[in-house]
Amino acid sequence: MQSLQEKASQWSGVSQDDAFGIDNTNLFQKLGLQTFINLSTSFYNRVYDDEEEWFQSIFANSKKEEAVQNQYEFFVQRMGGPPLYSQRKGHPALIGRHRPFPITHQAAERWLHHMQQALDSVTEIDADSKTKMMNFFRHTAFFLVAGDELKNRNQGVPCKHGANKPAAG
């Protein structure tokens, strides 16, 4: 049986080494707090303006300002900065915190679409940092898809989002 990390690598096309390349550079020191705030603000502006109702509905019970804060604090903490997220909310526990939401392949790709646009809109982020961050985001998005699949399997819900993907070799 594949681990969640192995599934994330397979589905995202990003190796674990590339996904965790963010650990080789302190992106917080390099980019600064305001850059992460700008990134998360740009991202959530796009999410909340999304024309796809199914995607927008995932965020319907969340306040945009709180979502922005949660995201940039997590990014800051994960990318070399102070543990802002954990100090305020406890352990990130990404799979557990995303458990109530339908994290499908389609949702992950839509999330990544908005994140790529947000990254491209924040001029303070250099190309190398964007690549490292997007590798991490892509792998993590599909790690959450794998966690959602596991949740559904444990609940006896048929899993559709991996149906069209090739089996692991």
Please, could you describe this protein's structure?
It is a single chain. The chain has 10 helices and no strands. The protein is mostly helical. Helix 1 (4-12) crosses helix 10 (127-154), helix 4 (33-48) packs across helix 9 (105-121) and helix 9 (105-121) runs antiparallel to helix 10 (127-154). The N and C termini lie close together (11 Å). It is globular and about 40 Å long. It has helices spanning 4-12, 16-19, 27-31, 33-48, 53-56, 64-78, 84-89, 94-97, 105-121, 127-154.
In short:
The protein is mostly helical and 169 residues long.
> What is the mean predicted local confidence, pLDDT?
84
Low-confidence stretches: 157-169
Oligomeric state: single chain
Structural class: mainly alpha
Question: What's the SSE blueprint?
Answer:
Elements lengths: L3 H9 L3 H4 L7 H5 L1 H16 L4 H4 L7 H15 L5 H6 L4 H4 L7 H17 L5 H28 L15
Question: Can you give keywords for this protein?
Answer:
169 residues; mainly alpha; 10 helices; 0% strand
